[in-house]
Specification:
3-stranded antiparallel β-sheet, 6 helices, homodimer, DNA-binding, mainly alpha
DNA sequence: TGGTAACGGTTGACACGTCAACCAAGATAT
DNA sequence: ATATCTTGGTTGACGTGTCAACCGTTACCA
């Protein structure tokens, strides 16, 4: 049985795991911000909105496909509406439709190639096919709720 | 040459990569908070402080070994001082010593086994030795600045 | 010696996330 | 029909992160 505390080796694995995600995410976020003026979360919202929803979507559905809770999305949308990237308008009285604006669409179109290039440069092109396969398998394993 | 945009497969890899880190980090952070009343960042600060510094350390050194910038650490320490987990006191006139308090030490001692158990349950024990080795190798590759 | 650069740290503004409380509208049960 | 639950969404408070500006102090160089 393992000791109560993490061994040096376990600690190294843990730190490696943490750093891996943080650094890559940060770099891609910076590329996005510098080249397209969009943050990571903003890019996520806009791309789902444009992709799955043809530009218009119920807030609920958007939250589900992002894996976010409603509060997080509501705050994010408030900020993005302030920047003019999306619009909210109530259809029926109790559900809200989120719509990508012309500016949002334009910014997204601009950001997509930047994002693709950054993901390839900072992640995909650095790894072998087997390493990538392991990443995907590990992600599925760790994503299970037990 | 790859198309300008990410292919469905590339997209799957990217999403898998993002989720992997976020979910595990979130779970461990929750375990820590619920069982020991400490957030992830707070745990990081306290454990470095107790480990490398015997409880007392220059702010600079602490930032370096956390991989944080001075501003981030300053904000974090302000909050933690407010909670009574650490104390700041100027030694010489221009550098600040950070010291873990009795409460900080006690909370950390309480949190360490919780942290170890959570890291094992949410990460280490779910993966094979080869998968763990790949993670560490991949982390080193992705950590390089190019 | 005087100017300037580097070091160590703080602060304020703002984006992001989480949690809990709240609210209105429908749906359900009794 | 009234009470209650669920759904969809907002809000406020607070912790976390980043960026840029700022401020003393020391070091270094002309």
């Amino acid at each position: 049985m393992p000791s109560e505390l993490l061994s040096p080796h376990e600690l190294r694995v843990w730190h490696a795991f943490r750093l891996m995600g943080e650094e890559v995410l940060a770099r891609i976020g910076q590329d996005l911000t510098e080249a397209a003026g969009l943050s990571g979360p903003e890019f996520g919202v806009l791309s789902r909105l444009a992709g799955l929803g043809q530009g218009e979507m119920r807030q609920q559905a958007l939250a589900d496909c992002l894996g976010w809770d409603k509060s997080r999305l509501s705050h994010q949308l408030t900020r993005m509406a302030g920047r003019g990237l999306i619009k909210r308008h109530a259809s029926d009285k109790r559900l809200v439709l989120v719509q990508i604006t012309r500016l949002g669409r334009k910014t997204l179109d601009n950001a997509m190639p930047v994002h693709a290039e950054s993901v390839r440069r900072n992640l995909l092109s650095r790894l072998t096919a087997e390493q990538i396969a392991t990443i995907v398998r590990v992600s599925n394993i760790l994503g299970d709720d037990d």
